Amino acid sequence: MATPNYGYEKRQKELAKKRKKEEKLRAKAERKQGQGSGTDAAPQDLPAGESPAPNDPSDPGSVG
Question: Is the pTM of this model over 0.90?
Fold first, then answer.
């Protein structure tokens, strides 16, 4: 029987937390910019930032 890889699971949780925190900070910055100018600043940050869904390998690691 295979043993669970707790280190991998912990790393995935840490990466998810980090990603969520970065998204929150980015959204907060966009809101702050939106108050001073228009709402045109929001689409510019998306290409430079990370995509949250495509490179999230959390499911393959939980196959036991």
Answer: no
